[in-house]
Each structure stands twice: as C-alpha cells, then as structure tokens.
Amino acid sequence: MTKLTYNTEVTTLGGKSVDLQEYKGKVLLIVNTASKCGLTPQFTGLQELHSEYTEQGLRVLGFPCNQFAGQDPGSNEEIGQFCQINYGVEFAMHSKINVNGGKTHPLFEQLKDAAPGALGSKSIKWNFTKFLVARNGEILRRYSPKTEPSDIIKDIEIELGKEVA
User: Fold this and answer.
1) What is the pLDDT of residue 119?
2) Which domains does the chain have, with CATH numbers?
3) Is 37 a catalytic residue?
4) Among 4, 20, 30, 37, which one carries the catalytic annotation?
C-alpha cells in the first residue's frame, strides 16, 4: 500500500496554507467537490460523517474542482458561502484545484496513483470521487462519485477502530 506524503501543502478556502502533517494520525476522507452538480447534495452526507465521526478521528477534506462541465465556477469565497448556507458544511474545505491534467494538485496525484479507478484508470471521472486514507497514512481506497457518503460508514468505522501503526 502507498502512504500519503504528509509534507504536501494544501490551501484552505480562506487562503491559509496548511501542511497535511496536521492530519497525521487521523482517518481522512478526501473528496473533489462541486457546487452545481447533480451530486452536490452529497455535501449533506459528508457533513453528517463529519458531525458523527470527528471526535473519533475522522477528517473530511473537500477540494472544489471546476474541471467537470464547469460545475464549480465560483470564487473560493462564493464556494464557501454556498456550502455553509445550503449544506451547513463545517468540515475543512480548500481552494479550488485541478484533479486531472498537467496542473493536477500533488495531493490528487498521490491519491490517483495509489488508488486507481475502474480498469486501473488513474484519471478522476467526475465530481465527488472519494478517497479513504488510514490513520497510518495508507491510501486505502477510491470510491466512485455515485457512492453515497453513508455507504462508506462501515469502512470508516473499521479504520477508526484501528490504532496508528
């Protein structure tokens, strides 16, 4: 299994640079999101996971992406307001990034290399592709955009029950 490189930097919606080291020892659910997609209501399920499992060590990390049919065209501020007002999002949302192509964010390069999609495909096919990362940094699994957050609960609970190796 491939491990996450924790010295990777990400930027919050507010423009603050954060090192993934901050999440070491936590179970991570990393998602590329969009505000104007048919799957956007998944923000509700992601927020429910955040509310239910944060104290046990889960961190949901959202990364807006406008690469799929232009479904997240707003500014970082607009995206943040949309997520808060419409879905009560309290989990960590980050600046808009690319998840495919020559300008792919390094975090998503790692995730795609470690957990390819159907038929070994590395590219992300659509918004709301999800990646589960264990407490020890192992990149465990990719979930399709249509996988509802509630369908991942069992896998999350298994990982939360494990100690950091």
Assistant:
1) 82
2) 1-23+39-64+76-130 (3.40.30.10)
3) yes
4) 37
